[in-house]
Amino acid sequence: MSDAPKPSNFIRDAVIEDLQTRRFKGVVTRFPPEPNGYLHIGHAQAISIDFGAAREFGGRCHLRFDDTNPAKESQEYVDAIMRDVRWLGFDWGEHLYHASDYFEQLYEWAVQLIKMGKAYVDDLTADQMSEYRGTLTEPGRESPYRNRSVAENLGLFERMRHGEFEDGSKTLRAKIDMSSGNINLRDPVMYRIRKATHQRTGDTWCIYPMYDWAHGQSDSIEGVTHSICTLEYEDHRPLYDWYLEQLAIHHPRQIEFARLNLSHTVMSKRKLLTLVEEGLVSGWDDPRMPTLAGLRRRGYTPEAIRDFCERVGVTKAANLRDIALLEHCVREDLNRRALRRMAVLRPLRLVIENYPEERVEELDAVNNPEDARAGTRKVPFSRVLYIEQDDFRDPPPPKYFRLSPGAEVRLRYAYVVKCTGVVKGLGGEVTEVRCTYDPASRGGDSRGRKVKGTIHWVSASHAVPAEVRLYDNLFSVPKPDEVEDVKTVLNPRSLETLTGCRVEPSLAGAAPESRYQFERQGYFCVDGPDSLPAGLVFNRTVGLRDTWAKIEAARA
Ligand code: ATP
Ligand code: MG
Question: What is the pLDDT of residues 337-360, one digit of tens each?
Answer without folding.
Answer: 999 999 999 999 999 999 999 999
